[in-house]
Design brief:
Layout (H helix, E strand, L loop, with lengths): L2 H16 L4 H9 L14 H37 L5 H16 L1
Helix pairs in contact: 1-2, 1-3
Length: about 100
């Protein structure tokens, strides 16, 4: 799966969640970006095998994260252009304070 396809999956997942689609569908959608098979070196060294698997997982997960960040930045920019009295930073700070209070 290409970088763009993975980013599109991230955007589709966010769109689906906002549209009220079930979490199972969104999980399935996001699960499609994770490899189901891995190439592992012919070795008995567990560290070398783990590094190989991690390397194969990191690229799609990084692309997924980049898609989520791109989607957030786009929505935040649109929001900030229509709500100048309550910028995205203030909304995020309020969310962080709410989460911090819940931990107490």
């Amino acid at each position: 799966m290409t970088e763009q396809e993975i980013q599109l999956k991230a955007i589709a997942a966010l769109t689906a969640l906002r549209g009220g689609v079930g979490a199972d569908y969104v999980s399935e959608l996001l699960g499609e970006v994770v490899p189901t098979q891995f190439l592992v070196p012919d070795t008995q060294d567990p560290a070398e095998i783990s590094e190989a698997v991690l390397a194969q997982l990191s690229e799609p997960l990084s692309n997924l994260f980049n898609g989520l960040v791109l989607a957030f930045q786009t929505v935040a920019d649109a929001y900030d252009s229509t709500e100048p009295d309550s910028p995205t930073e203030a909304v995020l700070q309020a969310l962080a304070l709410q989460i911090a209070r819940e931990e107490e």
